[in-house]
Amino acid sequence: MNMVDITAAQSAYRDELVESGLLIPTGVDGLYGRSGVFEDVVERFDALVTRWGGQDGAEVMRFPPALNRQYFEESEYLKSFPHLAGTIHSFGGDEKAHRSLLRRLEEGQDWTEDQVATDVVMTPAACYPVYPTIARRGPLPGEGKLIDVFSYCFRHEPSIDPARMQLFRMREYIRIGTPDQVVEFRELWLERGRAMMGSLEVPLDVDVANDPFFGRAGTMLSNSQREQKLKFELLIPITSTEKPTACLSFNYHQDHFGHLWDIHTADGDVAHTACVGFGMERVALALFRHHGFDTAQWPASVRKVLWG
Ligand code: ATP
Ligand code: ZN
Ligand code: MG
């Protein structure tokens, strides 16, 4: 399939999802409302993740889908992914500027001139608020830390692919500790991820992946990430069999975040980190793709896994 065919397939599948009512269009590519049926699947999958990961004793943290701008600046996200970041701006002018804003609005001109950056930015990945939070607590306990997060995430990647949204939800487990602890966690979840998604009877594949680092220097970073096998994705066909969609990802950051935020192990070494991320909308879309739009008609075995 060439790019034109892939795009046509994505567009056609998005139309089907909208017609079925599962996705509610808003007029912006990648920004959708969801029906009750869709949300039910998301909730059941979230509960399934807890069933597989809940016994490990993770500390639960829930953050709003925005990040302290200072944390965002410290994260070096702007070095790697300036094209994806979403910053929150608000009106900062006086009455004169307000009058000019209203005039420009009325005349259909750009009215955003007096919008200024606030102290918050959109969360790009659910784990970002965790690292500075853990860093503030001081050195890690001997067994390290395991955190459970769930958040809406924003990425400026408008697309007609219904599986590439601008606002989507990510459940994550994050492991922070020694290299051994962190690598063991990622191995465990690579196996669990396969078994868990296998129980939902969808075709899947696990493969090495890379993040879309920006610019020419970014290509080098992407290549090195692949060579070192730092990122794996669990892929399921949604709009294309040849280009399946990443529904889960398994990321080893080595000591990158440990360095940035000065996170230390009990022995005083710089901590390593890893996370496993579950793309809630993508998993739901994969299930609708393979089992149909009517959840009552899904295989009994799959219904049992999700609804008990
Ligand atoms: P892709 O390669 O498809 O862009 P990604 O590498 O950016 O995916 P991660 O950054 O690892 O994905 O994010 C963790 C999970 O969040 C992914 O495995 C995926 O399920 C989900 N996800 C990422 N981007 C999107 C998006 N734009 N819309 C919906 N879900 C997404
Ligand atoms: Zn993460
Ligand atoms: Mg991406």
From TrEMBL:
Stated name of the protein = Amino acid--[acyl-carrier-protein] ligase
**Does the record bear Ligase in its keywords?**
yes
Q: Which UniProt keywords apply?
A: Ligase
Q: Which Gene3D superfamilies match?
A: Bira Bifunctional Protein, Domain 2
Q: Name one GO molecular function term.
A: ligase activity
InterPro entries from the UniProt entry: aa-tRNA-synth_II/BPL/LPL
SUPFAM superfamilies for this protein: Class II aaRS and biotin synthetases (SSF55681)
